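INFO  loader      accepted 1 record
INFO  loader      residues=199
INFO  predictor   begin
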Amino acid sequence: MTELNPIQQLVTSLARLPGIGEKTATRLALFLVNCPLDHARELAQSIIDTREKICFCSQCFNYTEQELCSICTNAGRDGHIVCVVETPGDLMSIERTASFKGRYHVLHGVISPLDGIGPDQLRIRELVQRIRQQQIREVIIATNPTMSGNATAVYIADKLKDTGAAVYRIAQGVPSGSDIGYADQVTLRCALDGRREMK
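INFO  predictor   done
INFO  writer      dumping tokens
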């Protein structure tokens, strides 16, 4: 087997990243070859530091360097409202809106029998325990509007029935700024079902 030269090895490594094809990996590799050595070292060290220092928050399972993440320890957040998301990336997307002031619970996936992922592989048991122990009043399920995301939302809602918490599903429907004529039937049905009164 022919040994890869350093640039080919870098391209191969970068192409393993999600959403990065061979062309993009090649462009990134050539950029890194030509950037100042300090920048390349800083990037390499950042990757190592992230892998070595980042762990799961013991309460919400977001990424953190401490036992509890900065959201869980923030006294200004409403601890009686929890937003359930699939991934830390989804949490970050909601945080960018600066409109949610509660706390989170990260499932790290959705129920997907075809992929061998059942409820026991997710952080659902911990969510139910947390709702009971912390007397949380409101749970917002913000899984993606896919078959697996919807099935997971239904499963979680069923598990939370006797906790006393009000359970909500995020609204789904026609995106702002889009054209109704281009929306599919499922999207339009969700938009109509989720209608609200104008005041």
